[in-house]
Amino acid sequence: MTDISNFPDTPGKSEKEYSKWFVLTAVTFVTCLITANIIAVKLINIAGLILPAAVIIFPVSYIVGDVLTEVYGYKQARQVIWLGFFCNILAVAAIWAGGLLPAAAFWDGQAAYERILGFAPRLLMASFIAYLIGEFANACVLAKMKILTGGKWLWTRTIGSTLVGQGLDSVVFVFVAFSGVIPLEGMISAIITQWLFKSCYEAAATPFTYMVVGFLKRREGVDVYDRDTQFNPFLMAE
User: Where are the transmembrane segments (predicted)?
Assistant: First the structure.
């Protein structure tokens, strides 16, 4: 396995060339993110825990994010995180515009459309801010831990980075979205519940993460270590 610090700047690959496996991984990440935001409106009951339905798919975006950072490095993960952010804005804008357009006279689903697909501005802002902070923290922690561990003990960095990333995501979202709306005790309870559920989800998926990471490293012939990477999330080119 080749230890490289930049992808796709490898021999035989041009600056703008991306493999089908990288594209597939990036598309999966973005799909998980957009799907999670759409289904989050439904509240579900799992073993007595009240959670948004997004918990069935949103943690997968962190798993895929781990794969991106572990295999392709922080710089490529950073691009995909921003891609997911802008794709999500596009989806929200399209849904909002669809709600504004006049409905056909025979269509009686406008109220349902607005109830299910309508987005409160405060919740959107909370979701966007929490996503960026959580995902970048997750990628940064994993990349740095990979260097510290010399690429060993993948499970320590996938779980460790998730504890940090999901923790920050939950804290930021709940406080931005619900400060002044629900009591502090309720917010703390919601943060802990979501954080633990998502972290346990990631831990349970560790064997799958190992399998995907191993497959991609073998097929791509890359294993990126971000030793000289600048971790500024707003730096789009190095």
Answer: 21-40, 46-68, 80-107, 119-142, 163-184
User: How many other CB atoms are found less than 10 A from the CB of residue 233?
Assistant: 17
Q: Please state the rounded mean pLDDT for residues 37-57.
A: 86
DSSP letters spanning 24-81: HHHHHHHHHHHHHHHHTTSEEEETTEEEEGGGGTHHHHHHHHHHHHHHH-HHHHHHHH
201-206 — which CB contacts under 8 Å span 24+ positions?
201/55, 201/59, 202/59, 202/62, 202/63, 202/66, 202/158, 202/159, 202/162, 202/166, 203/159, 203/162, 205/59, 205/60, 205/63, 206/155, 206/158, 206/159
Domain of residue 165: give its range. Answer: 3-224
- Mean pLDDT, range 144-168, rounded to an integer: 93
| Position 236 in a domain | no
For 99-139, write each residue's pLDDT tens digit.
999 999 999 999 999 888 887 788 889 899 999 999 999 99
Q: Is the pLDDT of residue 145 over 80?
A: yes
On whether residue 49 sits in a domain, the answer given is: yes
Backbone angles phi, psi at 13, to 5 degrees: -120, 135
Q: Please tell me the distance from the alpha carbon of residue 81 to that of residue 131, in angstroms, as a whole number.
A: 9
Residue 70 neighbours by CB under 8 Å, 6+ apart: 142, 146, 154, 157, 158, 213
Q: Under the phi-then-psi rule, with left for phi > 0, alpha for psi from -120 to 50, and beta for the rest, what region is 153?
A: left
Helices (H) and strands (E) in the chain, counts: 8, 4
pLDDT of residue 9: 43
Q: What is the CATH number of the domain that holds 141?
A: 1.10.1760
- What's the domain count of the chain? 1
